[in-house]
Structure formats: C-alpha cells, structure tokens
Amino acid sequence: MRIMIVGAGQVGRHLCQKLSVEGQEVVLVDQDDAKLRRLERELNILPVQGSGASTRILEEAGIDKTDLFIAVTDSDEVNLVACIISKQYNVKTRIARVRNEDFYSKDSSLSEKALGIDLLISPDHAMADEIVRLAIFSEAFEVAEFAGGHVVLLGYVVQDCNPCVGVPLEQLKTAESGLRFVIAAITRGGTTIIPRGSDKVEVGDKIYIVVRKNDITAVEPFLFNCSSKAPNSVFVIGGGSIGCKVARQLEEKGIAVRLVEKDARRCKTVTELLDDTVVLNFDGLESHDLLDEGIDQADLVISVTNSDTSNILSSLLAKHHGARKCITHITRPDFIPMLGKLGIDVALSPRLVAANMILRFVRGGGSIVSVATLLGSDAEVVELKVPDSEKFRGMPLKSLYFPRGSIAGAIVRGSEVIIPSGETTVEADDSLVVFFTKEAQQVIEATFS
Predict the structure, then answer these.
(1) What's the CATH class of domain 232-348?
(2) Cβ atoms within 10 A of the Cβ of 143, count?
(3) Do the domains 363-447 and 132-224 match in fold?
(4) Which of 57, 60, 226, 326 could form a disulfide with 315 if both were Cys (CB 3.0 to 4.6 A apart)?
(5) What are the pLDDT digits (tens) for 113-142?
(6) Residues in CB range of 207: below 8 A, 6 or more apart
(7) Inter-residue contact 245 to 255 (CB < 8 Å)
(8) Residue 184 Cα to chain centre, angstroms
(9) Pairing of strands 46-49, 206-212
(10) In this predicted structure, what is the pLDDT of residue 352?
(11) Does residue 112 surpass a pLDDT of 60?
C-alpha cells in the first residue's frame, strides 16, 4: 500500500516508523528539508520537500498513486486543504488531524462527512479519553479494550510485595483456582518479552495481562494484591482544553473533581463550562494551597498544563504529599521512559496517543477488527477474525503457527469469551486477540489474512 503523510512532526514521525517497518511504501511531505533528510537516514521513506497544501507538490509526491493520505501538520488549514486536494485524485482513505472544536460538532457544516474526510482526529479528545480510561482502572498504567469491552488488556508495574514475584508462570497458572488470564508480555529493561511457562516475574517488570472484564476484580488480588476502583477524589492541574474535557467526563461518572488553574480569566471560562467541578484559582506548584485543598488525600492527580516542566513538577509534588496515582501530560515522547524512574505513574504524549488512534483506524478492516499500540513498548495487540478456512476449523491453538514473539490472549465466540490454553480449538469467525512484538507482526497478519 502506498501511504502519503504530510507533516514530519512527532505524529508524522511515529506513523512513518510504524508503517515503514511493516513494508508499506511511505512518502513523507514537509517543508523542513533538514528534518526530512534526518528521517530519511533513520527510516525507509521517500521524502518530498514542500507544502502539503500545494497541488504541485502533492503531484510531485505521487498523489495519484496513493492509497492512504494522512495530514498531521500543526496547521488545521494545511491539513484540511491537503485532504480536500487529495480527494480530487481518488485517494481511497483520507485522515486529518484538526484541533478546532467546530469540526467535531455533529451539526457542523464542517464535519467529516461534509468535508469528505474519513477520519478527523483531535489530539485533545484522544488524550482526554485515554486519561479517563486510565482513571477508572486505578492500579493499571495501560488499558486497551477488545470484543466490545468484554476483553481487557491491562499493564501493571510489579512491586516487591506482589504475590507473583519470583514464581514461574506455569505455577501461577496451576495455582490460579479457576481464574482465567494470560500474561501476554513482560517489559524488562526496555525489552519486551513474550514469556514462556518457565519465566519468572521480577520486581520492576511491567507486565501485560489479558483477562475477561468480569474477572479483573479476582485476578488483580491474586497477582498483585490490589484492586482497581474508580477514584473518589481527583485533582486536575491545568484548565486548558484537555483539563476541561477530562473534568467533564469524570463529572458524568459521579467523581469529585477539583480543577486548579492559575489564570483567573480562564477560571471564569472553565466554571461556565463545568457543572460540579470545584475550580481553584492558584498555581499548581503552590504546595500550601494544594495541601489546604486536600492533595494529600487525592486518589488521582492529572497534570495537563501547557508546560512539560510544570506537569512533571506538579506530579512529583503531589506524589510527595501522598497522592496515590498521577497521570502526566508530556509533549516530548522521548522523556516518557525516564519519568517512571522519577516516580510518575503514567506519562502520556498527546501526539503519540493521536498517532496510535490513527494506526488503529488504518489497520482496521479485512480480518482485523481492532488494534492497540502500547505506549512505551514495541508491542501491539490485535483483534482479528479467524478466516472461514478448513485449516482453522477445530484446530487447537498449539497446532497453529504462532511465531516467536506472539501469544494468543483470548478467543471471542459469539457472546462467549474464552481465555485459552494450547488445547483450546478455534472455529471460523471466532475473534482472536493476539499480542505480538514487531518481529512477529508480518507473520501473524499473513497467517490470518
């Protein structure tokens, strides 16, 4: 497939990296020649210098031979104009990143349908949705749902008090007393491991489990001696677009929210946008003010100002005073791996969240139902339909070829969710949830295509 990406920023770079590794033909258009040359050396892409809103530049880049067009510059206008131009060349699928809220109103004359664009994506909307998902599963640092929400992949950081530490995985499965789960992967020292039965969990590991949603309350105590629950008290530091969206969604779930914003005029605007949130006018780095409002008793602190420095410091301050969990907005994805060592529970980049949302949309269709790209890892989870082929009917999973670096986490058959073993058989039209590293991706997709 020929893919054209307009914009060589963080989102464009992440998309190029993911799609070029899959063997796709990727063309990258940007006005910054130095940035293009650097990415050309690092990735297998074709760079084209110029504006994505120029018909001449797009023609030079081969727009007439393009299957998928993605515009992700920092300019809404350039992204929209580029997509509209691409429509004239019968590009099959068009995606644009747009920040302006007017485009997301159902009644707007500038909606996706009116503009002829297949997907409009707002980094702020995507970021807010991701934060709220993580807020509800209080003990996890990563959440992805499959099979209409009936199957969940959750990521946890292993502590020294967790019952699973030092126990071979095969013994955990033997002792599970009817619990059904799959430890799909372990991230250790920056490397993602698809574990086998003899592998052991170590303190500091990040482990990913696949489990039925109804079983989470039983599996968490068994493995981690904890239990996720929706927070009772939440502080949101920053009254910008993301902060308001998060507060609104948490309000709707009946969660008590305090929103801290140092700009008095913005506080007035935020107060008019929200119903039950307590809006506080002071700096999120003012320790005494935060303590007066109960930051030491907070279940969750969400730092989403426009400053990475303020977000990091306010999160560390909240953790120092006793807040249970913090979620931190970070513009630079390169900093995410080091923030965990500082004590920050979850660091999210809106650019990476938006890029992963685009990847889910791009890869959907055909046998693939849904895809989740895990932040901070080179692994992905895909939900795919088992083809109606003789080689799959009644075949046990152990007899199917799963390459090294992959593991089946769940089978969805009608309304039934099965957490499988090697003896579990698959049938045509089952949905199979598979966890894999990038080395195994092409083999998995080819096997079930």
Answers:
(1) alpha beta
(2) 18
(3) yes
(4) 326
(5) 657 788 888 888 889 998 998 998 888 888
(6) 155, 156, 158, 164, 183, 185, 186, 187, 201
(7) no
(8) 17
(9) unpaired
(10) 81
(11) no
Cβ pair 158, 201 in contact under 8 A: yes
Q: Where are the domains of the chain?
A: 2-121, 132-224, 232-348, 363-447
pLDDT given at position 198: 85
- How far apart CA 120 and CA 94 sit, in angstroms, is 9
**Bridge partner residues of 237 (DSSP):** 260, 303
- At a CB cut-off of 8 Å and minimum separation 6, what does 289 contact? 280, 282, 283
Q: Considering the domain 132-224 in this protein, what is its CATH number?
A: 3.30.70.1450
> In whole angstroms, how large is the CA radius of gyration of the chain?
23
Q: How far is CA 106 from CA 103, 110, 113, 133, 294, in A?
A: 8, 9, 10, 23, 39
Could you tell me if 216 and 179 are in contact, meaning their C-beta atoms sit under 8 angstroms apart? no
Beta strands at 119-121 and 151-157: parallel, antiparallel or unpaired: unpaired
Element (H, E) at 406: strand 406-413
The verdict on pTM exceeding 0.70 is yes
Taking CA atoms, 222 is separated from 164, 165, 188, 337, 348, in Å, by: 8, 12, 21, 28, 28
How many residues would you count in the chain? 449
Domain 2-121 falls under CATH 3.40.50.720: yes
DSSP 87: H
Q: How many CB atoms lie within 10 A of CB 369?
A: 19
